[in-house]
Design brief:
This protein has 91 residues and is of the alpha+beta class. The chain contains four helices and two strands. It has a single domain, classed as Beta-Lactamase (2-Layer Sandwich), CATH 3.30.450.40.
């Protein structure tokens, strides 16, 4: 019985179907992101647009973007509502 529940979840059968309102909201988020990316003048504006889209799509007030540098070290390049202590601990 447990195996069936696990396979159902793995196949996405335990997930709800998105409501029409969810689809409209997601499309609006993607439209705003695409528009802002098209108009962006630099990485800062791209990161801001991406963080807004992430927060809007997930209903979260916290998000971050991390990138690998030339040495393979990942570090924060943009964030929302993350403390300096948290960022230092993760870096």
């Amino acid at each position: 019985m447990q195996h069936k529940a696990m396979s159902d979840a793995a196949m996405g059968q335990g997930q709800r179907e998105p409501a029409d309102g969810d689809i409209v909201r997601e499309q609006a988020v993607l439209f705003r992101l695409t528009d802002r990316l098209y108009r962006a003048n630099g990485l800062g504006e791209i990161y801001d647009a991406a963080l807004d889209a992430i927060c809007d799509a997930l209903g979260s007030s916290r998000a971050s973007i991390l990138r690998f540098d030339s040495h393979g070290v990942m570090s924060f390049v943009a964030w929302r509502s993350l403390s300096e202590e948290y960022r230092e601990a993760v870096n």
